Amino acid sequence: MSFGAPKGEKLRDRSLLTPSLSMNSLSLFKDPKLSTISMLRKVNKLNEDEKVQFEEKDFCQLCGAEFKKFLKPRHHCRTCGRSVCSKCCKGSGENRICDMCITEDENKELKNTYEGVLEEKQNQLEALRQNIISLDKRTAEKKQQLEINKNNLKEDLKKKLKETKAQLSNEIEKNETLKADLEMKREELLKRKEELTNIEYNLGKKKTFLKTKKEKLEEKELELEKIRAKLLKYQEGG
Ligand SMILES: [Zn+2]
Ligand SMILES: [Zn+2]
């Protein structure tokens, strides 16, 4: 809505306006020149059914132009009751509205629009915030689960490592025993071999000794045979 809008449209819009005391009209109190009007307006608006009280001024309350009969007639804004010249208002009769009220309405509308946008953005922000919270929560849960999995894996690995180590240790021990056994048996075998060599050596010695004895025995037998033959010859001859 702007000052340049078609008259008819503007007037129709006017009829929909609810004269009520808004934050915008309260802000008028900041301007000392307008405070009286606003106060008046406030009083007027206390009763919705009551008509706006017209102000009877000699000068336009917006531009300050002096009113003159026919040349510059005085008009009254039906919203605030200000005395205004024709340049400072729009519409006619019961639909007349001063530029100040138009600006005020436009501000109100703008404010409503911005408030709407603000609310929408705030809602979006809140939704985003909720999303972030839920995401954070899920992330935390995932992290926790991951931590649990990690710990479980670690425990499993530790257990398996311990088992493998024990197994390996066991096998090493077994191997060690086997090795010791083998070593013992080897030593025993060596000893036996040595004994066998000794026995063989002794046997050889005995064999040689026996052979010598046999030879001597044969020699002696031969001698005995000779003696026997001599004896026989002697007996025959005797
Ligand atoms: Zn004026
Ligand atoms: Zn007005």
UniProtKB/TrEMBL annotation:
Coiled-coil stretches: 107-237
Keywords: Coiled coil, Metal-binding, Zinc, Zinc-finger
InterPro entries per record: Znf_FYVE (IPR000306), Znf_FYVE-rel (IPR017455), Znf_FYVE_PHD (IPR011011), Znf_RING/FYVE/PHD (IPR013083)
Domain (FYVE-type) ranges: 54-106
CDD domains on file: FYVE_like_SF
Gene Ontology molecular function: zinc ion binding
Protein name listed in UniProt: FYVE-type domain-containing protein
